Amino acid sequence: MNSFFVKIFGRLSREYYFRQLFFSAIITALLYFTMSKQIPVISLAMMGINTALYPYSRFVYESIINFIVGDNIFILNGFLMIIMKCITMALCYIFAILIAPVGLTCLFFRGNK
To answer: Structural domain boundaries of the chain?
Structure first.
């Protein structure tokens, strides 16, 4: 049973995992402080789940983008790139509960090879 969890949750590098967890904590803090004083318990629970699953949903997003773009380099406006990055981070956070199972499944099957 322990190897099952290692195959799934231990496949992302520590640096990548903690960097993505840091960004998800920032998004959670922004949401928490912009909400009203009385936050429903279900919202707090969803924010906690999304924070925990965000690194895996971001892994799915970056894998898809890497597959589409490949090794190409795009020269864009830096401000526009940061705006797009924030939008994709917010979308990955919001839909983490739906996207992350795909990433966890991919990581599980990668671990079996």
So the answer is: 2-112
